[in-house]
Amino acid sequence: MDIANKILENLYDRRNGFFTLEEIGKIVGANYQTVERALVELSNRGHRFERHPAEGIKLVRPTVMDAYLIERGLPVKHIGRNVICFDEVDSTNDIAFDAANQANGQALVITAQYQRRGRGRFNRKWIAKPNSAILASVLLHKSASILPHESLTIAAGLAVAEGIEQITNLRPSLRWPNDVIIDDAKLAGVLVEIRQGVANRYVVIGFGVNVLSAPPMEVVGKEAICLADAIAPMPVPEPIDILRSILIRIDHWIEQLGKGNVQQLHRQWCSRCNMMNRVVKIISSGQHFTGRVIDVNPLKGLILMTPQGQYVHLPAGASTIVD
Questions:
Q1: Closest Cα to residue 252, out of 184, 121, 244, 297?
Q2: Which of 161, 168, 154 is nearest to 187 (CA)?
Q3: What gap in Å lies between CA 310 and CA 317, rounded to an integer?
Q4: What is the pTM of this model?
Q5: Residues whose CB falls within 8 Å of the CB of residue 142, separated by 6 or more in sequence, listed in order
Q6: β-pairing, 179-182 with 173-175?
Q7: What pLDDT is stored for residue 300 in this prediction?
Q8: Per residue in 75-99, is it b (16+ CB within 10 Å) or e — as a string?
Q9: Which residues, listed in sequence order, are joined to residue 182 by a DSSP beta bridge?
Q10: What is the maximal distance between C-alpha atoms in the chain?
Q11: In which residue ranges of the chain is pLDDT below 50?
């Protein structure tokens, strides 16, 4: 580990406490000049510091996304071992696909502080102010790229909800196919995209979580909420910690899907679903359906019973709820 990362992890782990430069130097085994050079390097990576003439230095919170802090000690098999962080991009999903040929079949996580052209399903815009949301995309490893689109969408939404719960103690609900919600307001969304390369099938799971702010209803057409409001007056956890928690759960569920364990996924997803036994209107592949939600199948999609008593299966990739 280099000196800059040693300093960063100590500042990060102390949270709101100060370090004197002398204290940092002793911990990382470096002199004053080396510590100052490392702090300049960390500043260039986007980290901000508060300096006090008597107490020393500390990180300004929230901390920007940092690959080292995300990856370190993460208990995952694939997802979260390789992370690249950007300040600003057009789309993290597009960056992930662009990097697929160089990933050599390994999983890759892309994050950004801001997306100029963030998108949701059916090319809807994903709107988030700079530094206000977790914006990330996961390029799945080769062995997971053959998994069904339907299962991946269900697993990704559940993983985001579970990851948020484990770090905040909130219990988000799920609205098929890809919304993570709190009190009927959208907190996070998921977009699973598949592209066929010359020799390989590439799968990217993109997700966004409103952390410090949420877009207004008149802009996005539905009520949205952010973590800051949902857990107030409690402080918002570090976005890095939230992202790490989500990546752990994505890694877990992708591993379970690879083993064919869809029944557990089904039970856990349905336990959070707020749509069961409700009458909904769905547009799927251009057709309109109205019916009572009977089930959400990880392989077959949403199961509706129409007023005529017929059962229809609607796949996530081609379907959207009509509010």
A1: 244
A2: 161
A3: 22
A4: 0.94
A5: 105, 106, 200
A6: antiparallel
A7: 84
A8: ebebbbbbbbbeeebebbbbbbbeb
A9: 185
A10: 78
A11: none
Residue 207 corresponds to which amino acid? F
- In whole angstroms, what is the distance from residue 291 CA to residue 283 CA? 12
Locate tokens 């988030």: which residue? 128
Specify the pLDDT at position 122: 54
- The 3-state DSSP class for residue 279 equals strand
**Rounded (5°) CA angle 285-92-133:** 100
Do 14 and 113 lie in one domain? The reply is no
CATH number for the domain harbouring residue 207: 3.30.930.10
The span from the CA of 136 to the CA of 244, in Å, is 11
Rounded-to-integer distance, Cα 69 and Cα 193, Å:
27
Alpha helices in 45-192 (DSSP H): 67-71, 92-98, 149-168
Task: Look at residues 108, 161, 126 and name the one whose alpha carbon lies nearest to residue 270.
Answer: 161
171, two tokens = 């219990």
Task: Evaluate the omega torsion of the peptide bond into residue 177 and state whether it is cis, within 30 degrees of 0.
Answer: yes
User: Domain check: are 74 and 51 in the same one?
Assistant: no
* Measured distance CA(227)–CA(235) in Å, rounded: 9
- Is residue 284 within 8 Å of residue 319, measured between CB atoms? yes
CA angle 74, 247, 187 (to 5 degrees): 140
Rg (CA), the chain: 21
Strand partners, 115: 89
Residues facing 304 on adjacent strands? 293, 312
Q: Which of 35, 59, 83 is the last residue of a domain?
A: 59
At residue 322, the pLDDT reads 82
54 and 73 co-located in one domain: no
Residue 10 domain boundaries: 3-59
Q: What's the rounded Cα separation, in Å, for the pair 205 and 321?
A: 20
